[in-house]
Write a structure and sequence with these properties.
Shape of chain B: globular
Strand content of chain A: under 5%
Structural class of chain B: mainly alpha
Number of helices of chain A: 14
Oligomer: heterodimer
Order of helices and strands of chain A: HHHHHHHHHHHHHH
Radius of gyration of chain B: 24 Å
Strand content of chain B: under 5%
Largest sheet of chain B: none
Radius of gyration of chain A: 23 Å
CATH superfamily of the largest domain in chain B: MetI-like
CATH class of chain A: Mainly Alpha
Helix content of chain B: over 70%
CATH class of the largest domain in chain B: Mainly Alpha
CATH topology of the largest domain in chain B: MetI-like fold
Distance between the termini of chain B: 12 Å
Number of domains of chain A: 1
CATH architecture of the largest domain in chain B: Orthogonal Bundle
Largest sheet of chain A: none
Chain lengths: ~300, ~325
Amino acid sequence: MEQQFNNDQLTEHELESTPATGFRVIWREFKKDKIAMGSLIIVAFIILGSIIWAPFIDKEALMKISLLDEFAKPGENGFILGADQGGSDILGQLIIGARNSIVIAIAITVITGILGVAVGIICGYYGGIIDNFFMRLIDFIITLPSTMIIIVFVTIIPKYDVWSFILIMSAFMWVSTARLVRSKALSESRRDYVSASKTMGTSDFAIMFKGIMPNLSSLLIVELTLNFAGNVGIETGLTFLGFGLPDTTPSLGTLVSFANNQTVIAEKWWVWLPASLLILVLMLGINYIGQALRRSADAKQRLG
Amino acid sequence: MWKTVVRRFLIMIPQLFVLSMLIFILAKFMPGDPFTGLITPQTDPARLEELRQQAGFYDPWYVQYWHWVTNMFRGDFGDSYTFKVSVASLIGDRGLNTLWLSLVSVILTYLIAIPLGVIAGRYQNTLRDKTIVLYSFVSYAIPTFVLALIFLYIFGYQLQWFPTSGTVSVGEDPGTWGYFWSKVYHLILPAITYAFLATTSIIQYLRSEIIDAQTQDFVKTARSKGIPMNKVYTRHIFRNSLLPIAAFLGFSITGILGGSVFIETIFGFPGMGQLFIQSIMGRDYSVITALVMLYGFLALLGSLLSDIILSIVDPRIRIE
């Protein structure tokens, strides 16, 4: 009922002024939905905060082992969030971990986004053999037990570093974006403006990336936001198991993985719980933002 | 109908071939060979070479591949060198545990998801619906390992309602009721965790199906015949919306297998997911290849099952 009412309001509003476009629509949606606005502020705070704060943390001092501070409780010995087994500050690890997890998830999202969009648009636009080939490939990769194969890759790659992890993850994560973009590009390529461009002799490349792609932009923003959340989840999960980021690059998953120790999970909640909750808040926040973006991309669902 | 099923089966053959090729290549890249584990200071290098010769280690790759595939069809996956038993029997033991866990998880998932989905769809935009939508949003967004850890911490360690690891308490004799109950008791927490995560798609699908069905002609007809709304829901809408849900069963299998790596590791549940992590840690490559192959095969089988159920349930899909 509420949605109905808002739609009525919207039409009334639109009669008076020209409809808002682009980012103004998104902004209006966020202004209308308080939870989405809250999520946006929290997520922006976590992302910017960790990226800005992390370089100021002295990594050497952080990793120094001091047995006196072993499992210091929050507030003890000047540790705001307590310390872990080696007496390292949890807060510092949390911020560096969050920064690493976020930056790596962004890198994976960008790589899979570019690959997925390119393959998706090309398949949707050309169709035929190219489309058939890629769709079979994508169907196949989607059914693969990707978690296990990523873990196998991680263990057999010599000289394993952050970049190898990003590439391995990307190799499995581009498929869903490609599939989504392809289905939209397919219907988009049959529109009149594409046929008009073709008759005017515009090159295929220009039609695909200057004609079709901008028309998919709202969909892409939503997809990339949700992918970003998914990538944070998968990266921290794999690191938690011990097959994600190398030890030299601590992530939120590293902190959570302390919970693999029975005494830690049962009695030293401050070691692993903050990182778990931070992951949880990030995931809920980004997903909620994604939903608000999805609503603003679809005029029928808009609240604002 | 049969045409669709047969065609779907035929698609699976090249997929299986590519999967086995991929795993074979991965296995080739893994350091060491099946005899690395046998090496002791007393091992004679010449004898080791001989063993390698015999096992066809120096054969061309296609011969090796052929051996590997044919052995697999006979159920021979080689031996595990950390557990010192054949891979097949090892996976058989662990697989049974995972099978039980999956079974309980799937039953729980459907038991939770179907009522919630129906209520959310029927009472759309009420408080009940909004609560259920919120629940499904949270369960969609939360990563498996975070939820599993939080559940383990709250229900296992803090409240101590459930055991925190294993499949059965020590001291129970197999075959007794106590043994059976202890097994079920150990399954509940991991299964609830899994079900919590898996309900999302079923709830959302069922909800939107029911909302869509409300405005369809067959519902109007039923209403105009004077059937009370309650009956329209249980007899007409529910049946129509429930059928496609059956098709989710295949995907559920795939989902459980993927999640089992995390859930079994966290709950210390000796199933295939935990075995996988243990073999990776112990570099037990014959077990790893067998497990990845098995998981891949089961995932393909799951999607095959889903497609077949869907084509039985929904005749429109058969016409392509």
